[in-house]
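Before we proceed, please read the two lines closing this message. Report back on whether the structure tokens fit the sequence:
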Amino acid sequence: MQVKKTRLTGYVATALLMSTASVPALAQSDSQAWVSEELSTYVRSGPTDGYRIVGTLDAGEQVEVLEESGNYTRVRGSGGDAVWVLSSELQQTQSAREQLPELEEQVEALTDELDGINDTWEERVASMRETLEVREQRIAELEARNRELDSETDHSRQQVRALQARLDTQEEDLLMRYFMYGGGVAGAGLLVGLIVPHLPRRRKKRDRWF
């Protein structure tokens, strides 16, 4: 983890340095400039190459611009002396050496922010995974319950068909009994009707008074 963070820090620092070198100068006073990134810059006592060299300025040193003349600019360094330096060896942006501490702070802040985002994302992913597992379990339970209900429904339908078949059989048996009963009654009545006329009739006794 430390190696990844170190590499990330290096990448971010490089990107920030490149972006700093490619963008215009920050809002600075017109009287401020910085010596170029060379190891040292020679300064002269006058604004031409004919003047003698009187010293050097450190790379990245901030100077105060006093005036310009031809290819030279008169500046005042940290020592307080006013000297002339080639204008091409001055730049309007802060040196990388002075920007480095600020860039390192930015890199550290960005690294912490990325770590926080990573932790937050991992927590969200874990929560989403847990929620998904719960939902999948619930879906599996519902599917199992649905299969049980389908099985119970099929069983109930079979029972209903069996009861309907029994009911139809009982109705047929009942109708058959009605027909048989009605036929028996009709046959018995017909038989009685045939037999009764042939039965001997009892004669009435006459009353004799003499």
